[in-house]
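Figure caption, in words: inputs first, then the predicted bound structure.
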Amino acid sequence: MIDLRSDTVTQPCTEMRRAMAAAEVGDDVYGEDPTVKRLEEEGAAALGKQAGLFVPSGTMGNQIALHLLGERGSEVVCDARAHVVDYEMAAMAALSGLLPRPVASADGLPSAEDFAGAIVPTVPYRARTTVLTVENTHNMAGGTAFGRQRIDAVLAVARQANLRTHLDGARIFNAALALGCPAAELADGFDSVMFCLSKGLGAPVGSLLCGETAFIAEARRARKRFGGGMRQVGVLAAAGLIALRQGPGWLARDHENARWLAERLAAIGGIEVDPSRVQTNIVIVETAPTAAALVGALRALAVLAVPVGPHRVRFVTHRDVGRQEVAQAAGRIQQAMADAL
Ligand code: TLP
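Bound structure (TLP present):
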């Protein structure tokens, strides 16, 4: 089986499993797990933030941030295809009383003007806008990465409207690699940033929420309220440390494989994709057959992918697939297209 559903499917490597077995641990709810503390410190430093909090998932990191930055009964402006809107179980509404105000964009980051137009003016008969979020890289736009110039324009709009800002940086190290800058440069200016250890960086579980010390102290309380207080969780943080230290170095291969795959898929009749727009490890293609038909035909040929629209399929490269598997997958996709059409 060649699994291209997501970079979340990576198995912990031998070094991670060894580090997990040997991890020094303590009760992290009491703040006594030295391995977790190390991970939180190193993670925050990598993002240029004062403090970090280890959370079980990216979703929890995003939702704790929105819970604290937003005001119950107010609006959150974000891209229309943001993960916080489409894939987090309506958590901002269900858990924090927040209304997403989705803004359409071509590539995953609305323009400063479009964001500004979606911010509710201060009038007595409308809910306020309190938060602006950005996703970098943007998953459903196909792993697109946004550099400092565009981020600055958007953050200026947020500042002018007195909004708090959150960065869903689940794949921030992919963005940093694609743009050739440090991850901290992309996180600068945001009140909070979440990034995942469990995606391309290869850890089995876990994400970090980073921000100012006082904010993270509050986030620690919110994490407990959300049921995310963990005990001897240094066993996971030990794998996270390896992911944080070594993972960014593994991503170049994933990006090369994704571009290579996109080039092969572009040559297949009935598939549309522009390889020049594949910047990181995500390839989203438009398919003439339905996405369900193609994904079904692929499964029969031992390739896994996910449908992300009626005629859209996503392939994600990651550490557990090399060029050989990607090449095999490309051949099977060609065959599956013939079956599905
Ligand atoms: N994304 C998953 C699915 O939920 C779609 C994937 O396979 O890509 N932000 C972004 C941008 C994400 O892509 C994801 C996960 C998350 C947040 C949430 O992370 P987890 O899955 O750890 O809750």
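Residues 6, 8, 57-59, 62, 83, 87, 135, 139, 168, 170, 196, 198, 207 surround TLP (CB under 6 Å).
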